[in-house]
Design a protein that fits this description.
globular, about 10% strand, Oxidized Rhodanese, domain 1
Length: about 280
C-alpha cells in the first residue's frame, strides 16, 4: 500500500477484511467544532473514530504527547486494528491531523499505514458515500512495540540546538515563528529555537487540499534551505503539524524525526534558548 492513497482507491478497498479506516480529526475547542459529533453525523463507511486527545499520554501536562506502547496497542485494538492489518487514516481538520496519527503508527513500528489524500473534504466533495452508524468492530490482537522511530524529546533537542547535529524545521506560521504573534498558551514565550528554519505546514498542500508531490514538494523544502544529507527534526506548536513535515519528507524518501513536545514544551522552559525575528 502506498503511503498516500486516493479517494477512488479507498472507495474500492473499503470493506476489505484486513483494512482499518480511522477518522483522526482533531480540532481545538476554540473552533466551536466537536470532532466526535461530526464523525457521528457522517463518516466514511467502515471508519472508526481515533481520539488523538485520548490515545495520548493523558498524565502529561503537554497536549497529545505519545502514549505508552501498551496504551497505544490496547486502544487501537479496541478500534479494530490488529497485527498485519493495513490502516488508512483521514481527517477533516485544518491541522491535517491524520499526519499526527501516521507519525504515531510509525513510531510504534507499524509501517503499513497510509493517509487519504485530500481527506474527508475531498471525499465529500466528490459525492462519495457517508455513514452515520458506527461500524461493527472486531477486537484483534495488536502487539505493543517500543517507541523507537522518529521521536525526539526535550533532552535530545537541547543537544541538537547546542551542538548543531541536526537541522530543525518549524511548521508554525511565520507570525508565530518570528514572535510577531504571541503564543496562545499561557506561559509559553514567543519565537523559535536558534537556527531553526520556518516551513509553515500549509505550504505542503495544493489548492485542492491534497499533498504536493515530486518536484513541486521537493522545491518547498529546498526554498527553506533543507539539506537532505543532514538529519532533520520537525517541530511546531504541539507535535501535530510537525508530523505533516515528517510525512511529506517520507513521500520524498526521507526520514524526519518529530519533536513531540514542540514549542509548547520548549517555549515554557525558563532556560531553553529562544530567538525572535526571522
Amino acid at each position: 500500500m502506498e503511503p498516500l492513497v486516493s479517494t477512488g482507491w479507498l472507495d474500492q478497498e473499503r470493506g476489505a477484511r484486513e483494512l482499518a479506516i480511522l477518522d483522526c480529526t482533531y480540532v481545538d475547542k476554540a473552533t466551536g467544532r466537536n470532532a466526535r459529533a461530526e464523525y457521528d453525523a457522517g463518516h466514511i463507511p467502515g471508519a472508526v473514530f481515533l481520539d488523538l486527545t485520548e490515545v495520548a499520554d493523558t498524565d502529561s501536562p503537554l497536549p497529545t504527547m505519545l502514549p505508552s506502547p501498551a496504551k497505544f496497542a490496547s486502544r487501537l485494538a479496541a478500534l479494530g486494528v490488529g497485527d498485519g492489518m493495513r490502516v488508512v487514516l483521514y481527517d477533516d481538520s485544518p491541522w491535517r491531523t491524520a499526519a499526527r496519527a501516521w507519525m504515531m503508527f510509525r513510531s510504534f513500528g507499524m509501517p503499513d499505514v497510509a493517509i487519504l489524500d485530500g481527506g474527508l473534504a475531498k471525499w465529500r466533495a466528490e459525492g462519495r458515500p457517508l455513514d452515520d452508524e458506527p461500524p461493527t468492530v472486531r477486537h484483534p490482537h495488536l502487539t505493543p512495540r517500543d517507541r523507537n522511530v522518529g521521536v525526539r524529546d526535550l533532552a535530545a533537542m537541547r543537544d541538537i540546538v547546542e551542538r548543531g547535529t541536526a537541522q530543525v524545521v518549524d511548521a508554525r506560521s511565520a507570525a508565530r515563528f518570528t514572535g510577531a504573534e504571541a503564543d496562545p498558551r499561557p506561559g509559553v514565550a514567543p519565537g523559535h529555537m536558534p537556527g531553526a528554519a520556518n516551513l509553515p505546514y500549509t505550504r505542503l498542500f495544493a489548492a485542492d487540499g491534497t499533498y504536493k508531490r515530486g518536484e513541486e514538494l521537493a522545491a518547498v523544502f529546498a526554498e527553506v534551505g533543507i539539506d537532505w544529507q543532514r538529519p532533520l527534526v520537525a517541530t511546531c506548536g504541539s507535535g501535530v503539524t510537525a508530523s505533516t513535515i515528517a510525512f511529506a519528507a517520507h513521500l520524498l524518501g526521507h526520514d524526519v524525526a518529530v519533536y513531540d513536545g514542540s514549542w509548547t514544551e520548549w517555549g515554557a522552559q525558563a532556560h531553553t534558548p529562544k530567538v525572535t525575528g526571522a
